[in-house]
Design goal:
By secondary structure, this protein is an all-alpha fold. It has 5 helices and no strands.
């Protein structure tokens, strides 16, 4: 994966397989962005991608149906491919191994966020229940 340049899928099955792997690529990009062994100038590629996606002027204006969004997708895919291919290969391999074992930072970060949101949702539900029970008591009185 690391030494092969990006090429578009040849058929729908290959496109589906590529989409199935997207979460692993997202986890890899997240891990590489957080790794201090990846040079800062390399991480600037991610900033450039984000800047292009946020900046209102595009190669193909977004008001043109389909094509307007395809240039954003192309910049995203080619930019992330460039970022991964130019990261230190040993670091990429190490993170891919962790991702394969389901032991990477993004998974832990998402689980931590889910836990915090779950606790917050539980508190919010309890507060809403108290408010609703007061309202019911007020209606019954």
């Amino acid at each position: 994966m690391v030494d092969k340049p990006f090429r578009p899928p040849r058929d729908p099955k290959e496109a589906i397989e590529m989409m199935r792997k997207m979460p692993a690529y997202a986890r890899l990009v997240w891990a590489l962005a957080r790794d201090p062994r990846v040079p800062t100038r390399q991480k600037l590629v991610l900033g450039a991608i984000a800047g292009y996606l946020v900046f209102p002027i595009d190669i193909i204006p977004d008001f043109i149906p389909v094509l307007g969004q395809l240039d954003d997708l192309g910049v995203l895919i080619f930019g992330l491919d460039f970022f991964i291919r130019n990261a230190p290969p040993e670091v990429v391999e190490e993170h891919m191994g962790r991702i394969a074992r389901n032991d990477d930072e993004l998974k832990r970060d998402l689980e931590r966020a889910q836990g915090m949101l779950s606790e917050r949702a539980t508190e919010l539900r309890a507060t809403l229940d108290r408010i609703l029970s007061r309202d019911r008591e007020g209606d019954n009185a």
